[in-house]
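Q: What would this chain look like folded?
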Amino acid sequence: MSRGIAPIIAAFVATGAVAQTSDSSDPIQTQNGIRYACTGVGASSREDPRWREFAAKLVFAAKNGGYLHDVTTRVVNAEGKTVFSTTCGPWLLLDLPAGRYDITATARDDAGSGHDSRATVTVGGGGQSETIIRFPSVPG
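A: My prediction, written as structure tokens:
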């Protein structure tokens, strides 16, 4: 039986398929031509090396500093056009083209009330732009 498995393993190694894997099962998706990932739950997810290649990383945090999930996020470019929107968290990684973007994020408290927070993100200066978006009125 090991003779049958050895060629398969060799094929994976030769094609680099083994090197492409990670512990995280968070998928990379695309919306309006923008690659993105919703992640950040669990250590293996946060340590996934794929996340380093994204231009922007948004981290959603409650008043107590704890992570928030199910945050609705809208990204608007310098021309005022909404280029991306989704609901996820606690991390949202975006592969945005170089430029300046206004972010509006809405988190819900335990009672279901929405709380907005805004930020401006600039990408394209090399490396990843990380922005922590805080919600001081959401206890966490």
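The chain has a mean pLDDT of 85.
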